[in-house]
Amino acid sequence: MSLLQIAEPGESPVKAACKGRVVGIDLGTTHSLVAVVEDASPRCLAVDAQGGRLLPSIVSYPPSGPPLVGEPARARAASHPHDTIASVKRMMGRSPDEIAAQQSHGRFLQYRLAPSDPKSPGVVRLSVAEARRAVTPVEVSAEILRWLRLCAEEQLSTAPGGVDEDDSILDGVVITVPAYFDDAQRQATKDAGRLAGLNVLRLLNEPTAAALAYGLDQKKEGKFAVYDLGGGTFDISILDLHDGIFTVMSTAGDTALGGDDMDQALADLLIDGRSDGAALRLALQQDPGQSRVLLAMARQIKHELTESEQATATLPNGARVAVTRAQFEAAIAPIVQRTAASCRRALKDAELSPTDLDGVVLVGGATRVPAVRAFVAQIFGQPPLCDLDPDQVVALGAAVQADILQNARTDALLIDVTPLSLGLELMGGIVEKIIPRNSRIPTGARQVFTTYADGQTGFDLHVVQGERETAQECRSLARFKLTGIPRMAAGMARLEVSFVIDENGLLAVAARELTSGREAHITVKPSYGLSDEQVEKMLLDSFEHGESDLRQRLLITQRVEAERILTALQGALARDGHLLNEAERQAIETAQAALVTARQGSDHRRIADAIAALDVASKSFAQRRMDQSLNQAVSGRAVSEIEAAVEHAHDIEGAHAALPSHAQPIDPSDARIRDLGGQR
Amino acid sequence: MSITATPKAIAEVKRLSQKRESEGKGTPQGLRIGIRGGGCTGFAYLFEWADAAPSSADKVFEFDGGVKLFVDPKSYVFLDGTELDFVTSIMGYGFKFNNPNTKGSCGCGESVQF
Amino acid sequence: MPTARNHFEVLGFPPTYFIDRAELEARYREGQRHSHPDRFSRAPASERAQVLQRATDLNDAYRVLKSDVRRAEYLLSLRGIDLSEEAEQAGGKKRALDPLFLSDVLELREELQEARLHNDGARIASMGADIRARMAQETQRVAAGFSRLSAAAKDDAAALDALADALLKLRYYQRFLDDMTAHEEATA
Question: Which end of chain B is more exposed for a tag (fewer CB within 10 A), N or C?
């Protein structure tokens, strides 16, 4: 409930209508989270049946039925690499050409590009569901958002009976984007929100969200740098917090740099250091599933090296390799170094030196890497702050901003900037900047241009975004025409072009010929974006695919979950049933039977309850199986047997990991290794 | 049962009371809390200064430093056992009723259900 | 998008070059507190459009008044001296700069080109420092010019011309520096 203030006599406020709920969503490259402000503080909501907070940003499309999202999708990555889309954020707002270029650099190789829709040749389409469907990155992102929405509605709904599709309790959502996202990427994110049936109140820059979570929490005043190294993007922002007002002073970054690149560098290190490296690489290129296994392994090593000085791994061909932290740090040094230029530029744009900063905040899982922390400390001349969970801080900040918007709060306000300069292409391909980068938004600017040829009756306008001097090197946002201008001598016509950037950082452009009064307006729909009609159509399509029936999807997921647990339990009973006495066995079998019945029904809550009940019943069984495995392992056998026993113990852990009481290993990458390891 | 208040809440009420006095808005007799119709789930809290003395039917709770809470008998049915707390958090600061009688609050938290 | 109030009025300052930076920040923040679109996220569309306009005006005014050069240029434009390029393009009278200055800048550009060719980072850095020193000097001239203007009873054409001259030079220097850093960033 909201906090109360003492009113003057007779003036206690009466709220006429109830406001719906608002949430904040961190739509990340590797993980996504949803958070809500409740009891006056933000918290992340569970995104899976185990109560985990991090939803892997992975969507997998089976040949029929709704797509799988999160952990179940991840489990299909190795077996269905083409149909399982990970890191889709890196494809948002990108053109087919850009993706093709990335593929030639060895990225996104596992995906098959579908021919683009003739109506929107600039939109990337991926062939999925065993080539039965083609989806755009926006649709894939929408699946993730839809899932988060579903989870939020489920947990926030107070009415018994759960989610009612027609009467969503979610009033609005704030979705975070990297500060350095350009207009096309922002539009794509907003479209994805719409497609997921969300009312997008605001796109919020990730570092700003992080600072919001930090600053307000600690009631600090001063200037802060937020260093955000996520899975796929890097952002640096300098913010000033004064009297409840956050002002973003500058921002810089790289939308294609992150922890994923570290994994890739480490994977390269694992392979290239070997005599059979070339053959291995070829084998991996032919088997995208295996290359995912390798990347997952690299990620695991990266995590291990956060704590220890050395880690070992088994390559897909069975060979064991060891990596030291020093080797790892040398491999990622170029990646870490690449962030330095952005840091310096952000400081320069803010007209500050490192000593002016009151703190440096770390955001993003990749900032757990010790080399990154050391680097940040060196660049800014002070040890970074890391008291909030770097994985959650962005979502928490988004929830805070959603609450600020929802309640029109006066005690906190955020003033953001536009990350990249916006301009027009002039004759000769030179860019004239209309709105410089790091301008506070909302903002607007006008500029007057003239004709270069006698009798010219039209203008071609090309809107670009970026810092480079030629249009070719900048990002093309939109082209439009202003025609019907009376014939005049060159230089006589006066074309006034105005740019307006709204509070979401989205651009609208208008052009007017001053002597004739001809006008053209355009809300910039980027060249690589979707038209409104296309979004509408996708919305209809998704109904066709049954993706909007939330209850149906929950049901399917719970059934899959039940199936998995039942299978695992069956195996366990067959192998280790002797560990149980008759009463215990009966209790488990009763719970098992209840789950089988529930699974056949259509109430996902009942299935979830039955899963929970089965967990309680089998808890001591799981413990005993673990103990047994470990005892066997240490009772002086051959090394290979010990390894097998440890594997077995892992399997047990795996079989029980889905159950709520064993949900502690929140880090899903552990689960990923385990899942994939089983298929080696 | 009765109504209690945390030391933080008491201190804050005292501070606000002195502030109100210094602004020339008068010295309150106490603080009136209650329940009344309104909000989307039916009831909302009443939480305001009381310039008038309590009526004979009112329940009066007195805390350290002379802080007094007045509750009308009807509201008391719903408020019995409530603890008044004062919270500072990321979202700002304010008072909070920890009321064991509520069955739930609406989404926005502006009103309560019994 | 035209706004009825000029940038000084938007932030409640008299039209003067000498503005207290802390006061500017404070007024800007106070203005945003009351007219940022976030405060009106639930308001009707018509009101939101107005608020958006107010917030935009505020940001634009702040941007102009914060920068010494932009503020000075704006003050001159309020006195009818438009130094913007669009005015030049539209056939306005071109201000003649000292030919000596122009050839000087040309030489500097050649020197920069040369230094880049030889990857001479030290030389580029020292050129940057030199330009900044020149800019500081011109900025002082601007300040002196405005204090003379405000002391005089009415505008003195020669003083205005001197101001315009200093500002144009500043613009050349700034562009030079921008090119320099853009190139360094691109090649870093």
Answer: N
